[in-house]
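ok so for the tutorial part 2 we go from a plain amino acid sequence to predicted structure tokens. step 1 is just haveing the sequence, like this:
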Amino acid sequence: MNILYVFCLVKFIHLQLIKYNHRCIMKNQTNYYSLKDFELSLNLSATERAEEFQKYINQMEQYGYEGYWTKSYSGIGAKMKLSQDREVISFVSNDYLGMSQRTETIQAGISALTIYGTGACAAQVIGGYLDIHEQLEREISDFTGQEDAILFSSGFGANAGVLNALLGNNDIAIIDPFIHTSALSGLKGTNVKRIGHNNLEHLETVLKDVQDKYLTKLVIIDGVYSQDGDLSRLPEIINLCQRYGAMLMLDDAHGIGVMGVNGRGTAEHFDCLGKVDIISGTFSKAFGCVGGFVAASKKLIQYLKYYADSNVFSAAITPQVTASVLKSLELIKNMPEIRHKLWNNVNYLRKNLTLNGFDIGESLSPIFPIMIRDNNKVYEVANLLQKSGIFTVGIVYPAVRIKEARIRVSVLATHERQHLDQLVNALIEINKNINFISNGESIKNTQKATY
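step 2 — the prediction. this is what the tokens look like for a chain of 451 residues:
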């Protein structure tokens, strides 16, 4: 008997068994649990919630899902090791330009370690402010088209710190519903109004309504939205903010280094450099490190250096990270071919996914939401991808709305064509057995990608 035929038959039977087991689990499971079910509760103590949370863990074990808290035995880029002898293609990293693994950034960090040691070990305001911190502030502010910048030990701390410092009871934040949790955490002491996602009419209505009611009116948006991969309508939003006397904060975590002719971010992409009041970002994505920044006017940054609590009461970003980020920034400026490779990969994958009928929403970035629209099937698809040697993460409620469950894929400059082809081909094969296309129909006229 033909060996290839036997292999295909075994693989087909294996997939059918997985489908059968999945149906049995769903049939016997009376409740579906999400992370939303175990948040802070008025009815349960902290220890009681922790005990109840075991129900969610048990459910994940029933699914066989290993996407959360998966241990890696290597750096995480285009590939990662799930064990010492098992390497998989990875689509979970946000290291868009591959900076975390480049010799130049690694050596820059090592050199800084020999000069400064492993940490500043003090907050910047009381002595932990190094000359390379100041250098990075200058270069980031210039790169983003702002007057000055302040550094934070995390991107989360950057958003939370600036908003805690600027907004109080007499102010209001007008937010897109898809901004990052880090921004939401900084809004607990102020008034908040949500608008429809990228909905200019709704934004204008709200701006008119609050125009004379609050001291500070701050519109908060993302440059590139982290789950859908779509872009903000930045030029129009800038115009509305100027018309109604509101400030604008742009979280460009997924845009800086990636978007724009020179990688200067979403503002450059839309030819709006210098027109945004506040730009925040992270060093954990295109820069391949960790930490964050806020860039704005000199007066505003001067104020934040005394009132942004996540900076004032936190040890400074480490010397190694600072030097590695500086080197990443230098490479972004001087080696545009790295960014070109990224966009070649993005365009290639977009073409092949859409050609084969997959729903990727409105993505215009290296972030691809492969829409499954079924929480149960998301876990099943993620499991089968992992068994095919591809590591992705299923995104379900409450991270996204129930009917918007998806597999999230991040494309990197370090991915090779064969990695992208393997992803597309695996999805095609999995869909033949699970049928996860949102309209309920199997993919027709599929064309396997070629290496």
